[in-house]
Design goal:
elongated, 338 residues, Rossmann fold, 14 strands, 6-stranded mixed β-sheet, Arc Repressor Mutant, subunit A, 6-stranded parallel β-sheet
């Protein structure tokens, strides 16, 4: 390790570098020159303090920086080791999403493209299951430089997320209450859904009945249900909330509102079998836009957040670390289904 200490002393001559950057650069240089190989153990914190005279917190910061890139790993009571010799890695990111729905696929693809190849992104899915959510957080804890998480909206999830340092966490998609030093880039459901329904009032009034499919205990946002109930009560609309769609039950003069795409495809299939025309015989409104909804049956009207914009904002936060607490507004995309 004497060579590593010599490298650190050389870095000290570069006055523009902070002390922790001097250590990081010395280790990266040692890896690139093959003086350090995968599996090699780094000097202990005490050894580094004794040899180079830097404060413990400075050395810990340097090691944690390299851990965040996936280059260094720590083993309980055994010290720090070289885990990866790819020194081009800027950051190792854990991305935790609900599921790989089409709109979340749009988020991932944009996020991946914007960050580029120097960022390692590992994707996990919790499916709105708290046991799965807790297990994933347990397994990934301390292994990543950044955690980008779409949380389950409940107090227990908030308590778990507060265990992650605020500088290493970005909350996306669903909003959750966290202290003011935690950044987020999320969407809002209740006010935005209500506002867009009001814009559609003349079209909604064309139909005799308005049905929302909402399954409690799923990942459906409760804000959409609240907005729907407020809207139909205020404007005296004959409406109903159904847990599920029964095959073949599609009826004329009815407007159907979907959060999940599963029932949407079933109603479109049944409408085709009965020769119903969307926007005339029945109406269809959906949450979360995608390319298929733009094309199929002449286009499906949607209330949707721009997930590509959310992904770009999230990627830029990781690259530049300018603190943000931002809500991406939902937009109404009018098509022929109403």
């Amino acid at each position: 390790m004497s060579i590593l200490f010599k490298n650190i002393n050389k870095q000290k001559e570069i006055v523009t570098l902070t002390k922790h950057e001097q250590i990081v650069n010395a280790i990266l240089n040692a890896i690139e020159s093959k003086e350090l190989k995968k599996g090699d153990r780094l000097p202990s914190i005490n050894k580094m303090v004794a040899e180079i005279g830097f404060a413990r917190k400075t050395i810990v910061k340097a090691y944690e920086d390299l851990k965040g890139r996936g280059i260094v790993e720590s083993k309980n009571f055994k010290g720090y080791y070289i885990a990866d010799v790819n020194t081009n890695t800027k950051l190792r990111v854990a991305l935790l999403l609900f599921a790989f729905h089409s709109f979340q696929e749009d988020f991932y693809n944009t996020f991946r493209e914007e960050l580029g190849k120097k960022y390692i992104i590992n994707v996990f899915f919790h499916h709105n299951n708290m046991d799965v959510f807790k297990d994933i957080l347990r397994r990934i804890s301390g292994r990543y430089g950044m955690y980008v998480i779409a949380p389950i909206q409940c107090p227990e999830a908030g308590l778990l997320l507060k265990k992650i340092p605020s500088e290493k966490l970005l909350v996306i998609d669903r909003h959750i209450s966290l202290p003011s030093d935690y950044p987020y880039i999320t969407q809002e459901f209740e006010y935005s859904t209500y506002s867009q329904l009001k814009k559609l009032l003349p079209q909604i009034k064309k139909y005799k009945k308005f049905i929302l499919f909402f399954k409690e205990g799923s990942d459906y946002p409760i804000g959409v249900l609240n907005a729907f109930n407020q809207f139909v009560k205020e404007f005296n609309i004959d409406a109903k909330v159904e847990k599920e769609y029964k095959k073949g039950s599609v009826a004329k003069s009815t407007l159907y509102f979907f959060i999940s795409d599963g029932y949407l495809w079933e109603i479109l299939r049944d409408s085709k079998l009965k020769n119903y025309t969307l926007g005339e015989d029945i109406g269809v409104l959906a949450h979360n836009d995608n390319a298929i909804k733009e094309i199929i049956f002449g286009g499906i009207t949607t209330i949707s957040t721009d997930f590509k914009k959310m992904a770009l904002e999230s990627a830029n936060y990781l690259k530049f670390r300018e603190f943000t607490r931002k809500v991406i507004p939902s937009e109404l995309i009018r098509r022929n289904s109403l």
